[in-house]
């Protein structure tokens, strides 16, 4: 059964600037502690990552995942291609310009292939969603400040 969560944050940046930070997947482990390593396996013609292999550590489990990205003007989504601890994962960011800021919504749905107590799963998801929003916000501000 899939577990879902979502969260919104407002970031002082344009959607393009935010998508550029998300597209720098190799830097993700520097601002998202559950990501141990990220390697681009394939890129789209515009340079954005298409398929990425990641090592993720959460709830005491380490997983090798391959995910595939889909990029839009104001959104990016990804879906799980393969993993050992997950049956499925669908996630993404939707960016809505709001004056000189951007409202960022992060949505994620995962289906574990290993049993995990509900309270641990919820706590892990909450931490991941918080990093995906607040961690992204901090990283965008850091990149923009140089």
TrEMBL record:
InterPro entries given in the database record: Polyketide_cyclase/dehydratase, START-like_dom_sf
Pfam families registered for this protein in UniProt: Polyketide_cyc2 (PF10604)
Source organism, top-level taxon: Bacteria
Coiled-coil parts of chain: none
Record's protein name: Cyclase
Lineage: Bacteria, Bacillati, Actinomycetota, Actinomycetes, Mycobacteriales
């Amino acid at each position: 059964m899939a577990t879902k969560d979502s969260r919104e944050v407002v970031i002082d940046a344009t959607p393009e600037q935010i998508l550029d930070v998300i597209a720098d997947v190799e830097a993700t482990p520097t601002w998202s502690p559950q990501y141990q390593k990220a390697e681009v396996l394939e890129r789209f013609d515009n340079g954005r990552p298409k398929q990425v292999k990641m090592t993720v550590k959460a709830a005491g489990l380490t997983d090798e995942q391959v995910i595939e990205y889909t990029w839009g003007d104001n959104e990016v989504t990804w879906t799980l291609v393969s993993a050992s601890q997950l049956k499925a994962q669908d996630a993404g960011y939707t960016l809505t310009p709001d004056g000189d800021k951007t409202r960022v919504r992060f949505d994620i749905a995962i289906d574990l292939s290993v049993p995990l107590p509900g309270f641990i799963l919820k706590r892990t998801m909450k931490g991941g969603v918080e990093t995906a929003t607040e961690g992204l916000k901090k990283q965008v501000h850091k990149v923009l400040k140089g």
